[in-house]
Amino acid sequence: MNKTKRMTETAVCLSIGVVLEVISQFIPFLSLPFGGSFTFGSMVPLVVISYRYGTKWGLFSGFIFSILQMLTGMKTVTAFFMPSSDSYEGVTRAIFICLLDYVIAFTLLGLAGLARGAKTPSKAMCIGSIIGLSARYVTHIVSGTIFFGTWAEWFFTQEGFYAFGSKIVENFSGISLSIIYSVFYNGLFMIPEIIITAIIVSALGKIKTLAQKY
Known about the structure:
The protein is an all-alpha fold and 214 residues long. It has a domain at 9-24 and 35-138 and 196-211: Arp2/3 complex 21 kDa subunit ARPC3 (Orthogonal Bundle), CATH 1.10.1760. It is 73% helix and 0% strand. It is built from ten helices and no strands. The protein has helices at 3-25, 44-53, 55-72, 74-80, 87-107, 121-147, 152-156, 162-171, 174-204, 208-211. Helix 2 packs across helix 6 (121-147). The longest helix has 31 residues, at 174-204. It is globular.
């Protein structure tokens, strides 16, 4: 395998992913008010790299992408480290949020390579994208439950969610309410992201040059 080619392709794919992410940030309806957004396929390059070069390289590429994500989302990352009543607790909390919502979440996109043995490239990339992005979704759910679950009751009683949200608040509390909130909130951007990515990579799988594995 030509290592230079692999590094070059990875650098190009990561750059495309970052550009798509940045462009998506300028489109208001794609972003949620409390963090998180779905994009115009910014995860697609990671799925392609994971398919072409395997899970191990995909995880490495995902890790690099997580660092780039923190740099492009520095405004949000910086907000995590704003002073609180307990500075030590605040910094510790911010570090764990960054680890879960960025480092682990985006690194796990490399799991898309697990499906590279499927019969066709399109099927492999489609299934791989669902695996990788679902792993990211689960990580966001864990983070949301632990660190943002206290917003659950307030969130479900806001205009637009009250019709069904009030029933959820009436029937659930504590950790169960936090989990439901995290699944729902993160699903608002992750489910569209999974669908968009799966559709795009399925089409890309039909392109001979992208369908080649190493």
